[in-house]
Amino acid sequence: MFLTNPHGGGYWAYNDGGTRVDSGSGGSRTVVPDKGDPFDVVIVNRAETGGFWTWIANYGQNPIPSPSKTPTPPPSQQNPAPQQTAQQGQLSQACLDALAVAGFKKPQEAQDAINRAKAAWDILTRAGGAHSIDPRILAALGIRETGFRNITGDHGHGHGIFQFDDHSYPDARNWAYDPGTAADRASAKVAGLIQSFTKFGPELAVAGALRGYNAGHVRATGRMLGRIANGQAGVNILDRGTAPGNPTYVTDVLAIAKNCF
User: Fold this and answer.
1) Going from the N-terminus, what domains does the chain have, and what CATH number goes with each?
2) Paired sense of beta strands 158-159 and 152-153, if any
């Protein structure tokens, strides 16, 4: 993987296991990372601003830099950065079960997805703080959507970690691959959806927002939330109509957020 930092300052290169594989000053460097996964997350420290640049890179390809707009704040006491773990056995069984539902049935695949989200924790904390969204929810969203990979999906229409659909966001390809921008837009989207369901209380409002994020249909979601609030149904009713082929989206995102971070 080839890195360049023309703006000065230093950089730190992490593999997907959360292990620092190289560091240095400005300029260009070639890093030979762990071959366990085709993606690496590289964080470039810009000393002159105190902020960060985040790179998502493929082996053998030049990465595209994504500058953050503001310096990255330290994690808050309410949402401290999860400890980086390299041992797959450190994930709880509840976490592994939730990730298996999302499609990560092998423990190492599950661990890699978690580590990619943890490597972006400063970005998630900043985006969540801007819109009062728990970064654990954003991390779980990104994992459920893509395994927290910066990819194109949904037959070419889903863009970036959070899979913004270009049918709804025609310009998504212009910003959805920038992790900071995408996380902020995902956080804003969840926050806006929560406002539609505040009368059901904060926990159900978040659950309803997750259904809205994946499936839309705010009115139908409101009716489901009404049934839950009246004791006529459980939260899993919100999974109906989500994620074709694996309609477990809402309960699974909540389970990943609760058990994996």
Assistant:
1) 1-72 (no CATH), 83-260 (1.10.530.10)
2) antiparallel
First to last CA, the chain: 29
Q: Strand 158-159: give its sheet, edge to edge.
A: 152-153, 158-159, 164-165
Inter-residue contact 111 to 91 (CB < 8 Å): yes
Tell me the pTM: 0.69
Coil, strand or helix at 55: strand
Q: Which residue has the tokens 């709804």?
A: 168
Amino acid letter, 2: F
More confident of the two residues 45 and 191: 191
The HSE-up count of residue 67 (CA atoms within 13 Å, CB side) is 8
Taking the C-alpha atoms of residue 207 and residue 239, their distance in angstroms, rounded to an integer, is 10
Q: How many residues does the chain have?
A: 261
pLDDT value of residue 3: 38
Q: Cα dist. 30→5, 40, 52, 59, 234 in Å?
A: 11, 13, 19, 11, 52
Give the full edge-to-edge strand order of the sheet including 10-14.
Answer: 20-24, 10-14, 39-46, 51-58, 66-67
**Which residues, at least 6 apart from 235, have a Cβ–Cβ distance to it below 8 Å?**
204, 207, 228, 250, 251, 254
State the DSSP code for 234.
Answer: -
Specify the pLDDT at position 98.
Answer: 98
Distance CA 94, CA 78 (A): 22
- Residue from 133, 138, 89, 98 nearest 116 by CA: 138
